[in-house]
Amino acid sequence: MDLLRFITCGSVDDGKSTLIGRLLYDSDSVSLDVLAALENRPSVHGTVDLALLTDGLRAEREQGITIDVAYKYFTTPRRKFIITDAPGHVQYTRNMVTGASTADLAIVLVDARQGVVEQTRRHSLIASLVGIRHFVLAVNKMDLVGNDQAVFDQIVADYAALADQLRLPHITAIPLSALLGDNVVTRSKNLSWYSGPSLLEHLETVPAFAEAAIADPRFQVQYVIRPQTNDYPDYRGYAGRIQSGQYRRGDRVHILPGGRESVIEAIEVNQREVETAAAPQAVVIRLRDDIDISRGDSLVPAGSPASVTRELEATVCWMDERPLWPGRKLLVQHHSALVKAVVSAIVYKVNVRTYGRTTADSAQLNDIVGVRLKTAVPLVVDSYQQNRATGAFILVDELSGDTLAAGLVGAVQNSFAPEALVYTS
């Protein structure tokens, strides 16, 4: 049974938490003890308050909003699901970036009374930037506009213009009412003019695009295992998670950024040797040659070269309340690799209303900007469009360790080929 990760996003009070609650409730994915607790809580609607299934923090419940990113899991006979409920407030855009980074599909919720608003545009932009390929335009609260098809058609047309600007590849529009359950799990007679699938029917059948499995093979070392015991006097293994692609015993690999070459002698999964392993498995790789390899180094098959660079262009969502200025020194955390860097330039800022780019000399909280970075030592990266696993990073404050930004690698400047680095002992 395959897995689909999806995120719900949209503006405040569009009904994201209620929609997720309805999916869980109507698909019989709520445990009996949780259901009993919900039924005993008062509700302004006189029914179970489904939003409480995702709004787990006390502060959120008291304000009636979602602040943090909430994750829920459920299974139907056809598929497993991981749901991410992202906050709708503008000041929590950074949380939405975090939630969208691993999603395969985005449900963009729109209030039928409000239509496409700024947060619709902002969240659609972020979802497209992080590489989500499938979108559901869920026009919610259709019951509050008399289930009028003309209202739905106008919102679909407005969103189509937005989608054309962002070049969104796959969009499915569904009218629904999360509160009443119309077209959420089963199709509703209240929207008889709509002939498409219910939301759950679509989620069960949309292709789950496993990008990591088909991308170029990438493996970054998290830990070097050297027990140096009587039983294993010469054992040297490199532990980590395969980020993308597949590795086989006998593959010739480059050790980057150093540039040496070797051959995979063995691959271990759960302390057992296997012939092949693929993303996202955690493995230990042993090489034929004794090479000095450290945490953060990458093992890349000779036929799938990666970029090795100290200079790159990236799109970042700035997450710190202190503004970003050119010349600021910080750390780039690229999976296990942590290197010093400086922001050499802020190239542009994205206007979330028009999707145009404007010049900028700084970045404020939740701004989406293009930057140039220079790192103290080379990084092994791919562009985010080529490989979501190795094209993402975060920026970290040198002193406090706080996360400052989420970044997506764009163009790589002054990349050099592994062959230029190869040396012999």
Describe this structure in words.
This protein is 17% helix and 36% strand. The model is unreliable at 56-67 and 418-425 (pLDDT under 50). It has helices spanning 16-26, 32-39, 58-63, 93-100, 118-129, 149-166, 199-205, 211-214, and strands at residues 3-10, 70-75, 80-85, 105-111, 134-140, 170-175, 218-220, 223-225, 237-244, 246-248, 252-256, 260-269, 272-274, 276-278, 282-287, 298-301, 307-318, 329-334, 337-350, 357-358, 368-381, 392-396, 403-413. α4 packs parallel to α5. By secondary structure, it is of the alpha+beta class. It has three domains: 3-209, P-loop containing nucleotide triphosphate hydrolases (Rossmann fold, 3-Layer(aba) Sandwich), CATH 3.40.50.300; 213-301, Elongation Factor Tu (Ef-tu), domain 3; 307-419, Translation factors (Elongation Factor Tu (Ef-tu), domain 3), CATH 2.40.30.10. It has a six-stranded mixed β-sheet, with helices on both faces. A six-stranded antiparallel barrel has the order 7-9-15-12-11-16. Strands 17-21-19-18-22-23 form a six-stranded antiparallel beta barrel.
